[in-house]
UniProtKB/TrEMBL annotation:
Residues 46-60 have a biased composition (Low complexity). Residues 46-69 are annotated as: Disordered. This is Orphan protein.
Length: 69
């Protein structure tokens, strides 16, 4: 089986317009990725602020240890 570019249809002027279209798609994808990253950062920041602070340990914690079996 021989695969060559001779049998492919020729698109006139497709070189530059294809590059512009590809660049446009890449730009839109980068913008979407940026928006998703910002949303993730904002969600992580708001959930960290909404959590209750950790309870402080007391001075007597761990002073009584039951060693009898």
């Amino acid at each position: 089986m021989n695969i060559s570019g001779n049998n492919l249809p020729v698109m006139s002027g497709a070189g530059s317009s294809g590059e512009v279209y590809s660049a446009s798609l890449a730009k839109k994808q980068q913008q979407a990725d940026g928006r998703a990253a910002l949303a993730l950062i904002e969600a992580a920041g708001s959930s960290a602020a909404a959590q209750s602070p950790a309870k402080s340990t007391t001075a007597s914690l761990g002073n009584n240890i039951n060693v009898y079996v």
